Amino acid sequence: MIQISRDIFKAKQILENENLVAIPTETVYGLAGNIYSEKAINKIFKTKNRPFNNPLIVHLHSKELLENIAQEIPEKAKKLADAFWPGSLTLVLKKKESIPYSVTAGKETVAVRIPNHSLTLELLKQLDFPLAAPSANPFGSISPTTSQHVADYFTDSLELVLDGGNCENGIESTIVGFENEKAILYRLGSISVEDIESIIGPIEIINKNDNSPNAPGMLSRHYAPKTKTILSENIEDEIKNYPTSKVGILSFKELNLNNVNIETEILSSNGTLKEATANLYAAMHRLDKKGLDLIIAEKFPENDLGKSINDRLERATKK
Ligand code: TXA
Ligand code: MG
To answer: Which whole-number Å values give the CA distances from 159 to 15, 30, 40, in the listed order?
Structure first.
């Protein structure tokens, strides 16, 4: 039976025994193991039912450790790390020989970040190895933003969730890689394109709906509720098409709906994209548990974090 606790010492012991612990980060909870343990890395893939060609992100507590992980650090990568670490930016860099191919799925590059969560930073400091951690959900399903989400997914297949409360940002990190010196954004995430560009100038966004992605977070159906979910530009009109269904609504701001039987999740009470992002996955988890026929999600404005939210909603609603 899985345990939810703040016991860093216990987490350390489990990880040192080459087993897994779910850890809190400011984006989503991660399913963590020692990057140098083949046993732990295999367990991560097995527990998540994740395809082996989908590489993992390495988590560090300090920038100085980057030289053990990556061979070369482009100038733009340094600027981004200075601006956003600890935080929700993942850099894809040329890997050091010592980084196992099981972590990078056979690639010569490695994804790495410093998460911004005090409990996990403290744990990382106490360990003498970095942690590989994909989001702590079965492959393809909604990422967890509370310790209870993780416990619901892995009741019998995981020993411990380190409880760090609700994830502050609520969606995964933004992933940036480099081809020669050119920066490329592989996954939209918690840090907006605008914020990245304010540090290094215009960036190319690759593979929005590509099927041969560099970042399989970009695979078409992903972040998906079990309930059928559709995306709509106008919820008030859309809902008229389903007069006899049990419908749930996922909307940015308050709507004027007079049908009281509708389950509604309003993502932001103060109308900010930041708050809506933080609430997105928890609201999807709640609606998914209500036995609805259909979830209708509202399309967000295509700027700042709205772009990242739309990306997740598009993947959640793909067939
Ligand atoms: O916010 C986050 O990034 C969370 C927390 C736990 O840190 N982690 C997370 O991991 O979202 P995961 O495994 O769900 O997504 C990792 C993404 C995948 O889409 C993977 O393809 C991409 O990172 N990735 C990892 N290594 C890569 C590489 N060498 N080149 C390109 N993409 C890579
Ligand atoms: Mg994931």
So the answer is: 11, 14, 13
**67-115 pLDDT per residue, tens:** 999 998 999 999 999 999 999 999 999 999 999 999 999 999 999 999 9
| Positive or negative: CA dihedral 194, 195, 196, 197 | positive
Answer yes or no: is the C-beta of 89 below 6 A from any ligand 1 atom: no
Give me ligand 2 centre to Cα 241, in Å.
33
Supply the angle between the helices 273-288 and 304-317 in degrees, to the nearest 10. Answer: 20
Instruction: Kindly give the number of the ligand 1 atom that is closest to the alpha carbon of 113.
Output: 7
Is 131 found in the same domain as 60? yes
For the whole model, what pTM was predicted? 0.96
Which residue segment(s) compose the domain that 47 sits in?
Answer: 3-72+80-87+97-169
